[in-house]
Amino acid sequence: MPYLALATDYDGTIAHDGAVDEPTLNALRRLKASGVKLILVTGRELSGMFDVLPDHLELFDLMVLENGALIYDPASKKTRLLAPAPPGPLVERLQKQNIPISVGHSVVATYEPHGHAVFDAVRELQLEWHVIFNKGSVMCLPAGVTKATGLVPALEELGLTLDQTVAIGDAENDHAMLQQSGLAVAVENALDSVKADADFVTAGARGVGAAELIDRWLSQGLDDIERKRAPKPS
Fold first, then answer.
1. Are 95 and 37 contained in the same domain?
2. DSSP reduced 3-state for 121
3. Which of 72, 178, 187, 215 has the greatest count of CB atoms below 10 A from its CB?
4. What is the number of structural domains in the chain?
5. Residue 226 lies in a domain
């Protein structure tokens, strides 16, 4: 079965220090021109994407935001919430503790070393929420919400499936997406655990690695890359 979609992480995968360079954007444009659907799958909130990529959001057919909690269609400007809003007591507790947090449609985000405070709040408030790490970032979301659970309905909107999808990432919160996609790719700067999940590791880091994958995809295809495991059921 041919690969018809690219699901890509943002920070540390196509972006460096929050920005995507022109060679990487050009590679993504070439892939989209070939007919492949582009899906951005990130822990960032929508407002954050307008800050870092304001002129290029429509390059993506769909965007999965807040680590799987929200889908955004750049063409129609419509959003689709896939998870409940943050519990008020959780937000209030962290604010009272002066924990620096960002509150999205569903995600509550902070950064290390505040992960323990978030864990403690979830446990003591007896919430069915989980804490996800993304290198130095910390995200709190409803139990079961991952990049993979957000990617599945995005693909369904496009008439595609996980086994038709190439996923590329670099950090802890990319594991579920990589494990369940048809082909898993890690950029060179990815964590060792992410590389271990990947079927293919690029020689280049970040955007250079993403462009390397795309050039290979367009020039010779990806069928010669052996998959380590069959995609898991969604």
1. no
2. helix
3. 187
4. 2
5. no
Q: Please give the angle made by the CA atoms of 90, 93 and 94, to the nearest 5 degrees.
A: 85
pLDDT tens for 51-102 read 999 999 999 999 999 999 999 999 999 999 999 999 999 999 999 999 999 9
Q: Quick one: average pLDDT of 177-182?
A: 96
- Note whether 131 and 140 are within 8 A (CB): yes
Residue 113 lies in a domain: yes
pTM: 0.94
Instruction: Sort residue 212 into left (φ over 0), alpha (ψ -120 to 50) or beta.
Output: alpha
C-alpha span between 189 and 209 (Å, rounded) = 9
DSSP string, 180-193: HSSEEEE-TTS-HH
Element at 111 (helix H, strand E): strand 108-111
Domain containing residue 206: CATH number: 3.40.50.1000
The string of pLDDT tens digits covering residues 11-59 is 999 999 999 999 999 999 999 999 999 999 999 999 999 999 999 999 9
Instruction: Give the Å distances, CA to CA, from 123 to 97, 108, 164.
Output: 16, 15, 38
